[in-house]
Amino acid sequence: AEEARIRLLRGHAHAACLRYDRAVADFAEADALLTALEREGARSHQTTPAHAKAGLGVCYCNMRKWTDAIEHGEAAMRQLPFDDIARTHVSRAVETARQHLTLERRGTGGVLRRGGAGPAGDAAGGRE
Question: What is the pTM of this model?
Fold first, then answer.
């Protein structure tokens, strides 16, 4: 259990430093360790495989891997208590990923479109 907790902490540290590939590796390792412990009947009151999956979901969202973010995030959300802060973070990541996938399906390339003058309007309003 201690090794899994260390992996989770390292995953958070790597994510904070924007080293998402390393964070994903640590969260995946923590998930595997915690899942194995859970199968053996060992229960941790603080850390569960769902916490590692939440970390994966958030990292994949930051890496713009929308489908992976949704897959891991939804798995975490099914297992985390409603008031767990990890659930709050991963639910935001899942919602962001869903929005980007929707935009990509519409052909906007994941860019939110807003009203306004646009590039032509910006150039026309300038003075020399």
Answer: 0.75
